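SAM-dependent methyltransferase
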Amino acid sequence: MNAQQLSHRLTRVAHYVPQNAVVADIGSDHAYLPCYLVLTGVVNKAVAGEVVKGPFESAQKQVQQEQLAEQIDVRLASGLDAIDVEDGITTVTIAGMGGPLICSILEQGKEKLVGIERLILQPNVHAKAIRDWAIVNGWDIVEEEILKENEKIYEIVVLEKTEAVIFWTPQQLLMGPELLKNQTVIFEEKWMRESAQWKKIVASMEATAQTLEIIEKKQELVKKIQLVEEVLQRENS
């Protein structure tokens, strides 16, 4: 992978960046995504934020190598602290982290989200955390995608700010309102895998002391299994 040829996962993230957006890529690593977006003419200006010194230096090197220093500003900062008001950022991308960590970044930098039109989020795990955060904070899910790369399954969740009151069912929060509309083979594989894993955990809990914590956790998993199996059975009937 390089700035001209992204991984399949990052190519799909790039797909959701609007033409002529001003992008902040948080946790940018080698800055491959912002470099690609500028090189392909999708955006003219971007910020690459990185909290770790090594990846920050790699991002700087990559931007210089691509001769994009005038268009991409690489910053060493934690989360959305990489963004300044004068940047005029319209789109934020955060890819390759767990859902809860992405939510933590958004929550801690809430004041930096004023004026942001779109969030393109690619959690490696626990996408539900992002949906939970979105519904509490007034962001609507406008697009979702599920994909497989190197035997790992990833989800992309695209959010836009809304004044409307949003309501999603527990099934939609868990599995994705847009993904449920168009259930792919990868979608089915993911949820069969997740359900099987939860069943193993529930079975192991049966053999342990039934503390209140264990009972509550078991009930939570059983509910998730039921939600998933309702969808899979409906799809295969």
